[in-house]
Amino acid sequence: MEGDADEDDETFTNISLADDSADGKQTVLRFRPEDQYSTMNCEIDGDMENRVEQEEKTRLINQVLELQHTLEDLSARVDAVKEENLKLKSENQVLGQYIENLMSASSVFQTTDTKSKRK
């Protein structure tokens, strides 16, 4: 009965092998009931792997969202620093011009002609 279920027990299957033994007996390959459990374990393992993959995806998505928020905060900080930098440059120019005006108005910083004093 090649490929048919054993009439006594439906959990076993008889499979005739091409190389029968010399005494004419048919070689039978039987599947143990434990094989069913390993199949069930594979399904459970598959479900567990899917859960683990889903948890990993969720963790990565949360990490990406957190990094996006951090990037937005850093971009806002860069914009604020650029604005402050432009303001400080403008103030430095005003102060530099004020100092130049003070120096030109003061006799201490006036350029002196050393040749005219020697003659």
From TrEMBL:
| Localisation per UniProt entry | Cytoplasm, Cytosol; Golgi apparatus membrane; Golgi apparatus, trans-Golgi network
Which GO terms of the cellular component aspect does the record hold?
Answer: cytosol; Golgi membrane; trans-Golgi network
Question: Coiled coil where?
Answer: 57-91
Q: What is its main location?
A: cytoplasm
Question: A Pfam family name for this chain?
Answer: DUF2205
Question: What's in the keyword line of the UniProt record?
Answer: Coiled coil, Cytoplasm, Golgi apparatus, Membrane
Q: How does it sit in the membrane?
A: Peripheral membrane protein
* Family per similarity comment: Belongs to the SCOC family.
Q: What does this protein do?
A: Positive regulator of amino acid starvation-induced autophagy.
Listed name of the protein:
Short coiled-coil protein
The organism encoding this protein is Onychostoma macrolepis
